[in-house]
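Standup notes, structure subgroup. Blocker cleared on the zinc ion input:
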Amino acid sequence: MPQWPMAILGLCLSLGAHAQGITAVLRQSQQRLLEALPLAAAGPRADTVQRSFEQLCQALGIATELHLRVVTGPVVAEAMLGHVVLANETLADAPEGARLFILAHEIGHLVAQDWQAMNSLYLRWIPGEVTPAHTDPVANDLGREASALAHQQELAADAYALHSLRRLGWHTSDAVEAFLLLGRELTHDTATHPSTRRRLALLRGWPSSVLQTDTTGL
Ligand SMILES: [Zn+2]
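Run returned:
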């Protein structure tokens, strides 16, 4: 679940004079985050996470090449670079339905091409080189727009994950359990994520018409 829009905005602002475009800066930033997290040791926990991921990809008919990276460290799960799902090995200890929901949420980000959409947004605000002269004047508006898009993307990924879970015979309560593991902000929106309370309300009351349609494109 990307924390990156605001973090990357901060990064852009701290880079100073920089001969690169925003797309390269965003990609390098994600790559650094990805490489900073140690890979989990091969073994039963990594295998369990891998099996759940493969089960989902198969059940959802994912045609594109997605890559799972099972890691240790502070991140529970995150979609990165448009094709990688980072998943913590501790997800192996979670109830299966919650694990599937969390992985499906990240797959949802990738299937919906959220990374590409966020890149396009940044590029629209910073079309030239990433320098304070280009980023300072737009930082507030860019931040607001990126935050709004990030919230939309989170809720859509939740809907996708719930749809996926139901397709596999699980229930909304299994999705709700996933939020206990994530331990996110309960009552307040953050820059990148709607509050858990808002996300749960949408999960519990999501219109059936949405869940019955194929939400692969969300
Ligand atoms: Zn997310």
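Discussed briefly. The pocket of zinc ion is lined by residues 1, 105, 109, 154, 157 (CB under 6 Å).
Next: hand off to the docking folks.
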